[in-house]
Amino acid sequence: MALLAKSRSKMAAATIFLAAGILAGAGSAQAASCGNNAAGYNAWLQQFKQEAAARGVGRRALSALDKTQYATKTIYADRNQKSFKLSLDQFMKKRGGQTIISRGKSLKKQNAKLFANLERRYGVPAGPLIAIWGMETGFGAYMGNQHTLSAVATLAYDCRRSAYFTDQLYAALKLIDRGDLSPDAIGAAHGEIGQTQFLPLNVLRYGVDGDGNGHIDMARSKADALASTANFLRGHGWQPGGGYQPGQGNFGALQGWNAAGVYQQAIAIIGKEIDG
């Protein structure tokens, strides 16, 4: 009995030790902790890199993370999004609606073959594509001044929408690994990419090699950016031949592009003027 009791005691101790080890291992596998200021960013980044490596992220993308830093301007922009609180008329003026319409008509003529091909393939006419292109970046003239990976990593670290932007960060890393995003890419404050401002996960889901060169280059290829935008709208329910004004079937796809009502209406108004 004494020997049996001693054996049981050893077994119990071993069980406790094993359980403690499992718990410790579980703790180390937990997601990196978010934060609300720059103080914890570097520690979070090192932990995230370990998790990313375990999930199969490649060396190129992991090395790119070392170039990131806490993006203060991104956090400021995230906390101060005011333009969508404007009236429709105010929003149209702020975004230069009439200028987009005027220049958009010219761009439609200059790129007639491209837009005809996109409408044939996706069922989306030129108007809403040009409206989005113009409102997002002035037809590629200004795509932002923030380091894309830093912006996305900062928002993944930030507690406000950490889970959402962690998915975006993994998408950005995949784009870097496959050569569709430069580690030094510059874009908008929330990590939006290219001429029509796709978040990284949407590049993975809807990105199209519109110019046929083997890569999806949302910044330097208008064909890639516009084809990807048409594919996004099609993926959000766009039906060929349908109307896209408020109350019509394809307006729902515009709602998928941006949650702000004034933005949706602006696309519809500008697009209709361009399409004629």
Summarize the structure.
This protein is mainly α and 276 residues long. The chain has 14 helices and 2 strands; from the N terminus they run H-H-H-H-H-H-H-H-E-H-H-E-H-H-H-H. It has helices spanning 2-29, 41-54, 59-65, 72-79, 88-94, 97-110, 112-122, 126-137, 148-157, 162-177, 200-206, 222-235, 251-257, 261-275; strands at 146-147, 186-187.
Account of the protein in words:
One of its GO terms (molecular function) is peptidoglycan lytic transglycosylase activity. This is Transglycosylase SLT domain-containing protein. Keywords: Signal. This protein is mainly alpha-helical and 276 residues long. Helix content is 62%, strand content 1%. The protein has 14 helices and two strands. A two-stranded antiparallel sheet has the order 1-2. The N terminus is likely disordered.
Core attributes:
single chain; 276 residues; mainly alpha; Lysozyme; 2 domains; two-stranded antiparallel ribbon; 14 helices; 62% helix; 1% strand; disordered N terminus
Distance between the termini: 95 Å
Q: Based on helices, strands and strand pairing, what is the structural class? A: mainly alpha
Specify the overall morphology: globular
Number of domains as seen in the coordinates: 2
| SSE string | HHHHHHHHEHHEHHHH
Highest CATH level, the class of the largest domain: Mainly Alpha
The CATH topology of the largest domain is given as Lysozyme
CATH architecture of the largest domain: Orthogonal Bundle
For the largest sheet, list the strands in their spatial order.
1-2
Strand content: under 5%
Low-confidence stretches: 1-29
Helix content: 55-70%
Largest sheet: 2 strands, antiparallel
Output the radius of gyration.
24 Å
**How many β-strand runs?**
2
Total DSSP helices? 14
Mean pLDDT, all residues: 90
Signal peptide: 1-31
GO biological process, one term: peptidoglycan catabolic process
Domain Transglycosylase SLT: 42-244
Protein name: Transglycosylase SLT domain-containing protein
